[in-house]
Structures are given as C-alpha cells and as structure tokens.
Amino acid sequence: MVTNIKFGTDGWRGVIAEDYTFDSVRRAAQGTANYFVQHGARERGMVIGYDNRFASETFAAAVAEVFAANEIPVLLTETGTPTPVISYAILANQAAGAVNITASHNPPSDNGFKVRSEFGGAVDPNVLLEIEAAIPSDASGVKRLTLSDALSQERVKKFDASTAYLAHLPDMIDVAPLKNAGLNVVHDPMWGVGSGWLQNILGGGKTTVTEIHSGRNPIFPDMKRPEPIPPNTARLQETVPALNASAGCLTDGDADRVGFVAENGRFVNQLEVYALLAYYLLEIRGWRGPIVKTISTTSMLDKLGKIYDVPIYPTGVGFKYIAPKMLQVNAMIGGEESGGFAVRGHMPERDGILMSLFLLDLMTQLNKTPTQLLDHLFGIVGAHYYDRIDTPFPPERNAQVRAKIAGVTPSHIAGIKVLNINTLDGFRYEMEDGGWMLIRFSGTEPIIRVYTETTHGDKVQDILQDGLKLAGLKW
C-alpha cells in the first residue's frame, strides 16, 4: 500500500518501516524538490540535516540522492545536528530552504520530514499544500542519483553546520558573563542532538555544565519520548537538587524546544518559561516589539503586553503559523505551549539552545534562582496554573467529535463563567478569571489534547475533567 503523505503541525511524521519507509521518504523528497525547483533551488541549493533517531542519517542520504538527481545542489550535514543549527545554515549559505530528518519529540518508533524555507523557519501552510500536491503517487515518479555518485560529482557536499551558528551566537547573547557566573547547570539533551552544546558554549570559565542522557540512543531509555515535559523530566528533577545545581535545562530530541527545572527540582512549565523569556527580553534586554503566541499558551503574555505596551498576536498551533506571523509583524518573540520559542534577529525558528542561554542569563542578570524568578514574575502578573491531558484518539473520529463539541455551548466550566469560545484552532473556552481551556486535535500524532491555564490553582483538574466530558472522552 502506498503511504498517503500529509504534513501536520510541523512536517510529516510516521512509524519507521510502516509508513515511514525509504520509498515514502523519497516520494516526499521528490515533491519537495518539485516545489523548490520552481523557487530557485537549482541556483541556490538546499540544506539537508538530520537528528539522532534510528537511521536518520540514511534517510537524509536518500533525500540528498533525490535532490541531486533533480540537479539541486545539496549541503548535507556531516553528523546529527540541532534543528536551529540546520535552519541557520539556510541563512548562512543563502540556500532556498532545507529538509530536516527528525521526528522531534515523538516516540522512538517514529521519524519525520520537516521542510524549512529560505528565511530559516517553517514554511507557510499553503506551501505545504503545494508540496503535498507535487508528491508523486508512487516510487516510479522519483528521480535518484546514488549518494556516492552525487558526492563525486559534487552535487552533494558534506559540511559542518555548527560553524556559522556559533559565529552568529554573539549577535544574540554575550556568553562571557554566563561562563564566569559560577553556575552549576545540569543539561538533559534527552539522547538527542543537543548533546555537548551547552557544555561547549559555556565551558572554560567558572560555570559548570553536567549532562545526563547524553549521546545517541535511539530508543530513548529512561523516558517515554524525548519531549521536555513531565514525566520525561523525572531524572533531571531528581538530579538538580541532588547535585545542588543552580538549574536544569532540557532540550528535546532535535534541540529546538526547551525545558527548565528549578534548583529545588520543580519543573517550570512551558507557559511559565514563555512568560519568563518575554520578561527577560522586555525588562533585561530592553527589547520592544510584537509578541506572537499560539492560542494554547499563556495569558501572562497579554498582561506583560499591557504593562510594556507591546501588541500580542495569537495564531493557530505550530510554527507553520508562528513563523509567517513573526515575519509579517517583525515580532520580538514567538512561541508555543510545547516549549518552542523564536526571537527577532535570529530566525523565526525554535531554538532550545539559545533559549536555555537566555534563561540562565536571566538568572545571572537578576541574581535570582529559578524559584525566585517565578515569585518575581507572579508578583507582576499574578499566579497562573497550567496542566494538560493527552489522550490517544483515532483521527477518523475527528469530524464526529468536532461536531459534538461544536453543538454544546457551556455557560460555565468548573464553576467559572465562559465569556467566549475561540475556534481558531480547536475549541478554546475563555473564562472570566482570565484563564482558558482548550480542546484540540494534535497535528502530528493521533491524540486529542485538553489544556488549561487558570488563576484558580484548585480548579485545574476540574477544568480538565470538564474538557474531557465536552469531548466525549469521559462521562
């Protein structure tokens, strides 16, 4: 059976050897080549990179073979490379775009195919539709030149993408104060391509970086998946207080997302991290400009926007919406609930490495622990409480459940009055306390998510349970 390739929230992902096969990857590559040939790829070339997942380097080579056969010059990374580093290589080499072989935070059974545009960020959803339409229906429509021939003919060249990224890093942050701050940092790269990066950047001074889950292991032991949220953070949450560390940072499998753990082992959730990063840029760095956020992330940004007089632009979930909006409004920062954040002057692409440095710099500049930073933040915007429930859900039931949810207009959720229902991406119930509850179907996995953020700490689970009931997942 021929795989039907559909691009979700961030690219196409599938189960290795089931729907994610060499034939299907080559078909996806041919569709991508067809699109980019019409948009300057033969003159400018394309970047191809990959992560530490099973056979990622071999799948990346298969993509390079297809591009080379389509007379597209290819820069192929020498080794597994963080997504933000691959994306920056597009800018550094003035390439037409990139393909990145990664399934990011998905389970070890999966791999994926991300497409990036000339500005280094996710391509517009309309472009993804054009690429999908250009994918041949079977392998007979795929052009291919063996990698050895492509290398000998110099249609494919291997390169080290880290050089340009590290040369650009001083434009974004002065790491010298961080090196000399004497911080004791624990970094969990979650067996991904972020291994060694914080150690290399911050090494040589008084600050120390200790790694756990370091190196390559495609089955991701000690965690369900390389996603920087609980329960995958358990080991880091134990290690930070055990080592009397200043903080813990996580980067996911492809190092484009960030997680943060306080000195006492408390997980600082993704919404809190986004608010801290926005505060850091506004207050410490003195930046000004629009903030772009998905509807699944924090209302603390709206409060900061009012305090600092900067506009807030909500989008659907995924950087395929965030990146174009950031470019359109020249945003200061853009981000989402999953822990991915991008900033102006860099590229409209998530970067877990740079965001880790920003969080550590915020600690250093204010001389505060992560716990003290949260107390400081809540003193400005008030305390906010967040959680989410992910439930396996067959995609074929989406239409049925959407219709069911759309047919109900609750006046209250967990006893809190509902003021508005936003259907930009899923069903977001905005409540009178400034909080919200969102029911949304994942664009990358067969699951349904129910999220909430509220100022009532004792209402979090009640809100989530009411959300499950609305979706027909609980009675």
Describe the secondary-structure layout.
Blueprint: E1 12-15, H1 22-37, H2 41-44, E2 46-50, H3 56-69, E3 74-77, H4 83-92, E4 97-101, E5 110-116, H5 125-134, H6 147-152, E6 156-159, H7 162-172, H8 176-179, E7 184-188, H9 197-202, E8 208-211, H10 234-242, E9 247-251, E10 258-261, E11 267-268, H11 270-284, E12 291-294, H12 300-308, E13 312-315, H13 319-329, E14 333-335, E15 341-343, H14 352-366, H15 370-381, E16 385-392, H16 398-406, E17 412-413, E18 416-422, E19 427-431, E20 436-441, E21 447-454, H17 460-470
Parallel strand pairs: 2-3, 2-4, 3-6, 7-8, 7-9, 12-13, 12-14
Antiparallel strand pairs: 1-5, 4-5, 9-10, 10-11, 14-15, 16-21, 17-18, 18-19, 19-20, 20-21
Helix pairs in contact: 1-3, 1-5, 11-12, 11-14
What does this structure look like?
This protein has helices at residues 22-37, 41-44, 56-69, 83-92, 125-134, 147-152, 162-172, 176-179, 197-202, 234-242, 270-284, 300-308, 319-329, 352-366, 370-381, 398-406, 460-470, and strands spanning 12-15, 46-50, 74-77, 97-101, 110-116, 156-159, 184-188, 208-211, 247-251, 258-261, 267-268, 291-294, 312-315, 333-335, 341-343, 385-392, 412-413, 416-422, 427-431, 436-441, 447-454. By secondary structure, it is α/β, with parallel strands linked by helices. The protein has 4 domains: 12-165, Alpha-D-Glucose-1,6-Bisphosphate, Chain A, domain 3, CATH 3.40.120; 182-267, 3-Layer(aba) Sandwich (Alpha-D-Glucose-1,6-Bisphosphate, Chain A, domain 3), CATH 3.40.120.10; 269-350, Alpha-D-Glucose-1,6-Bisphosphate, Chain A, domain 3, CATH 3.40.120.10; 385-470, Alpha-D-phosphohexomutase, C-terminal domain (TATA-Binding Protein, 2-Layer Sandwich). Strands 1-5-4-2-3-6 form a 6-stranded mixed sheet, sandwiched between helices. Strands 16-21-20-19-18-17 form a 6-stranded antiparallel sheet, with helices on one face. Helix 11 (270-284) packs across helix 14. It starts with 11 loop residues before the first strand and ends in a 5-residue tail after the last helix. The relative contact order is 0.10. The model has no long low-confidence stretch (mean pLDDT 95).
